[in-house]
Design brief:
CATH superfamily of the largest domain: Alkaline Phosphatase, subunit A
Strand content: 5-15%
Number of strands: 9
Oligomer: single chain
Radius of gyration: 25 Å
Number of helices: 21
Largest sheet: 9 strands, mixed
Structural class: alpha/beta
Helix content: 40-55%
Length: about 550
């Protein structure tokens, strides 16, 4: 094949690698400068591989494989999480290899593994069989890659960072990933969000930095337990086919609560850290700019003002419990920055790396044991893992109360929904065990229970015509008629701390006036970010 045709074939493959993700994103025609920014990653990959190997078809195929992989990931996230790939998803890439069971089934394990194997085999075949049409220059390619990396490193630090952010703001990103991916293209969107987020983060750190903590002596205040229950919501909202007796523990908690209602979470199907950060800090996600996609990505790895620090300042011992890998979401770095003195993972609590995880009822016992060990003036934040998806067909026998609800063949993802409901029953049993344990102990305590997000069962929910985003919560105990009130995630932790500290009339630690530097940074980036209303009051 003539040299020109080989380069043309390689360039055509690279072009497809660029267009495939744009098609998934529904990207529209844009100004030439925007298209150049969006095409740059694929163009660099194709150019560097062609320079290194002298084999343009091989280089184009590698670019195509990478573009196809990105398109598959983006499509899967849109279907399962109702949002495209965002820049902070890069921090989760290592977790795909350390915890593949949490990611691959959503895209199809066979498709991912088979596709990766086929692409690797074909790529190696091309590398061996395709003759070099020009002299390979691997050192030149490596030097060019190093130069690009050095420029990127410099651009990530002042003063080049501010200049790069200013340039990328001229592309007009809105901060909403669906809109920006369609208007700018997915690669341009990721680049703009990454750089602008980093440029704004310094001001946000300064505005939200936790002040030094001087702990007061404990005075026997009530223990505080907040349980973040994986994928919990009142599934009876799906329709009348789910029996009223499905969640007896949650009903008991609601009847004895001071407040309960819908819990307005800023994510669907995953991204637990968003609700978690809101509860623990009291900071609304609208104040986080681009870091709202994953506050744990970088923002919360330095001490951040939070309700945890507030309770610690008042004399509370602060403990986080999670029967799973402490490094997941890098909580091992984040939890101390949020104010926790102690973070116990599965190395202390037990639990498995892979399903079945630590059962929720068993976790209830661990929570109560820690409470007995620590006594009053203790704040326990418990993160469950027992009902984490994906919900596969294989597993232990289902609870008869769930197995007979419907034939799984009747609806899409029917087997997954039954598995989820079976796990939901165990989460409800955990809550009942906590209520019984606290009542038996007879000591003052405040218990808050909420779901971090809804389960990623889009097709099953569509069958029921269910499109809501909110989960459910309750704050126990109450002294009168429970108040029904829908809460955003950022309100729950503050209200619990108010109850514990008998500080309901005090000014909130984190409030709208606490963010002058943050607001200034957000104004420089453009209009305030808006979020769809995830909380809907019951009809």
């Amino acid at each position: 094949m003539p040299v020109v045709l080989q380069f043309a074939a390689g360039a055509a493959l690279a072009l497809v690698a660029w267009l495939a993700p744009r098609r998934v994103a529904g990207a529209r025609p844009a100004a030439p400068c925007v298209l150049l920014v969006d095409a740059a990653p694929i163009a660099f990959a194709f150019g560097l591989l062609s320079l290194a190997t002298g084999r343009p078809v091989f280089a184009g195929f590698v670019a195509l494989a990478l573009g196809a992989a990105f398109a598959l990931i983006d499509h899967t996230m849109r279907q399962t999480l109702r949002e495209p790939v965002v820049f902070s998803a890069a921090v989760e890439l290592p977790q795909v290899f350390t915890h593949p069971h949490l990611y691959l089934p959503f895209a199809g394990s066979g498709l991912v593994i088979g596709g990766a194997g086929a692409a690797t085999a074909l790529g190696l075949t091309l590398l061996i069989l395709e003759p070099a049409v020009v002299a390979p220059h691997p050192l030149a390619a490596a030097g060019t890659a190093a130069l690009i990396a050095m420029v990127g490193w410099r651009a990530a630090h002042e003063p080049m960072l501010a200049a790069a952010a200013t340039v990328l703001r001229r592309l007009g990103p809105s901060g909403e990933p669906f809109n920006d991916a369609a208007r700018l293209g997915p690669f341009a969107m990721l680049l703009a969000h990454t750089v602008i987020a980093r440029a704004e983060r310094g001001a946000r750190w300064r505005a939200l930095a936790a002040p030094p903590v001087v702990r007061k002596p404990g005075d026997g205040r009530p223990a505080v337990i907040i349980v973040q229950c994986e994928s919990f919501f009142d599934a009876r909202r799906l329709g009348p086919r789910l029996p009223a007796a499905l969640l007896g523990g949650f009903d008991a908690c609601v009847r004895g609560s001071t407040m309960h209602g819908r819990f307005c979470v800023p994510a669907w199907g995953a991204n637990t850290m968003r609700a978690e950060f809101g509860v623990l800090t009291g900071i609304p996600d609208s104040e986080l700019g681009y870091d709202r996609f994953n506050p744990y990505y970088a923002l919360a790895r330095r001490p951040i003002r939070s309700q945890v620090w507030r309770l610690r300042r008042a004399g509370y011992r602060t403990i986080c419990l999670h029967p799973f890998d402490r490094r997941f979401f890098r909580r091992d770095l984040v939890m101390p920055a949020l104010g926790f003195e102690e973070f116990r993972g599965r190395e202390r609590l037990g639990g498995r790396h892979r399903p079945p995880y630590c059962p929720d009822p068993e976790f209830a016992g661990a929570i109560l044991d820690v409470l007995d060990e620590s006594g009053p003036d203790t704040f326990i934040f418990a993160i469950t893992i027992g009902n984490h998806g994906p919900w596969q067909a294989a597993g232990p026998p289902l609870d008869p109360a769930v197995a007979d609800l419907f034939d799984p063949a009747e609806l899409p993802e029917g087997t997954g929904l039954l598995r989820y409901l079976d796990g939901l029953r165990r989460s409800d049993a955990m809550l009942q065990l906590l209520l019984d344990g606290l009542e038996r102990r007879g000591k003052p305590a405040v218990l808050a229970f909420y779901g971090d997000h809804l389960p990623s069962l889009s097709r099953a929910f569509a069958h029921f015509g269910f499109e809501e985003w909110s989960s459910d919560y309750a704050i126990w105990p109450g002294a009168g008629v429970p108040v029904h009130r829908d809460l955003p995630a950022c309100e729950l932790g503050r209200r619990v701390a108010d109850l514990a500290l008998d500080d309901g009339d005090a000014v909130a630690l984190i409030g709208p006036d606490a963010y002058p530097a943050v607001r200034e940074a957000a104004s420089a980036a453009g209009p305030r970010f808006s979020r769809r209303p995830h909380c809907r009051s019951p009809r």
